Amino acid sequence: MSTTSTTPTPLPVTDRPRPPATRPGPAPRRRVRKDLLRSRVAAWSAVVVIGAFGLLPVYWLLATALSTPDSTFQFPPKLVPTDLTLGNFTALAENDQLISYMVNSLIVASITAVLSVVVATYMGYSFSKFRYRGRKSLMHLVLASQMFPQALLLVTLYAVFSSFGMLNTYTALVLSFTTFTMPLCVWMLKGIFDTVPDALLEAASIDGASRWRTLHSIVAPLAAPGMIAAGLFAFVRGWNDFIFALTLADKEKQTLPPGLVSTYIGEFQTAWPQLMAASLVVSVPVIVAFMFLQRYLVGGMTAGSVKS
């Protein structure tokens, strides 16, 4: 009688019993929670430090504007002023010259923004959608103009405007501000126009639209966020300029930065509370513009960063 030995057949890999899943014990859980808590504390600490670094000058500006002249020069200075007053702000309404400076700033900055956007739109569209001889050289020339210090060209601009009789005019200020806002606006809008598909332009051409109509009716609405961002940049540039407004314009045509300096900073004394109050008031238009146009600003700054 013969005996046959049978070997058990191995189970498939999928049918093999799996070891039970082990859950982390209480010690690893506590360690994970501690690491998570530490990362959150570190992140919020960084936010608080950076926020304090950025907001401390604004707080000190407001504290000085609400202080009296005597408390401003106390030593050691008080972090929280006790002698508060609104007289520094009420005195601004009685200063007619300051209102004139603000009107000049609004006129110059607004015209600079509109002119920069209009010229940069045509130049950016030309660089993006047309191919012609000298295109790249002209693009590099526009970009290279940003390499020169602005104060270095002040003497040349002064001589040019003086020879044409344009000193002490809004035209001199607008042209000088536009000269320095143009390159960035052109390259910003060129990057946005690059994202517009050429097939869309070809479809408009097949439908009978001219290049002029295509730019104004199809491309410009798509590039509206970038145009608003470029205009806002040009507006802030014209609003904050100091050296060109001080050199190219007289007291009647000066804008706010040189006007504030000539009004509150003297040879022997500086009215710091009044100067800080005026600085807060004149920054309101820019803050309001950023509040209403921030979504267009972010969209315009990032629209040309990624190409499809």
Fold and architecture overview:
The chain is mainly alpha-helical and 308 residues long. It is 69% helix and 0% strand. It is built from 14 helices and no strands.
Largest sheet: none
Shape: flat
How large is the radius of gyration?
A: 31 Å
If helices are DSSP runs of H or I spanning 4 or more residues, what is the number of helices?
14
> Which bin fits the share of residues in helices?
55-70%
Q: Say how many strands there are.
A: 0
Instruction: Please report the distance between the alpha carbons of the first and last residues.
Output: 82 Å
Segments where pLDDT lies below 50 for 5+ residues? 304-308
- The SS-based structural class is mainly alpha
Can you give the mean pLDDT?
Answer: 80
Strand content: under 5%
User: SSE string, helix = H, strand = E?
Assistant: HHHHHHHHHHHHHH
Short overview:
The protein has 308 residues and is mostly helical. Helices cover 69% and strands 0% of the residues.
Main attributes of the structure:
single chain; 308 residues; 14 helices; flat; disordered C terminus; mainly alpha
Q: Can you lay out the helices and strands and say which pair or pack?
A:
Blueprint: H1 26-65, H2 69-72, H3 87-93, H4 96-129, H5 135-144, H6 154-163, H7 170-194, H8 198-206, H9 211-222, H10 224-240, H11 243-248, H12 256-264, H13 272-282, H14 284-302
Helix pairs in contact: 1-13, 3-13, 4-7, 4-10, 4-12, 7-10, 10-14, 12-13
